[in-house]
Amino acid sequence: MNVAYFISKRIRSRKTDSFSGVIYNIGIASVGVSLAVMIISFQILGGFNEKIFNKIISFGGHLQVTKFTLSSSYEEDPISKDTRLSRDYKDFDFIDHVQPFAHKAGLIKAEEEVLGVLLKGVDATYDFDRFKSNMVEGRFIQHSDTSETREIVISRRIANKLELALGDEAIMYFVQQPVRVRRLSICGIYETGMEDFDERIVIGDLRMVQRLNNWSDSLIGGFEVYVRNFQDLEMAQEKLYNIVDFDHFVDKIDDRYAEIFDWLSLLPRNVVIFLTITLFVACFNIISILLILIMERTQMIGILKALGASNLIIRKIFRYNGMMLIAKGLVIGNLIGIGFGAMQYHFKFIKLDAVNYYMDYVPIKWNWETIFLLNFGTFLIVSIVLFIPTYIITRINPINSIRFD
Question: How many CB atoms lie within 10 A of CB 363?
Answer without folding.
Answer: 22
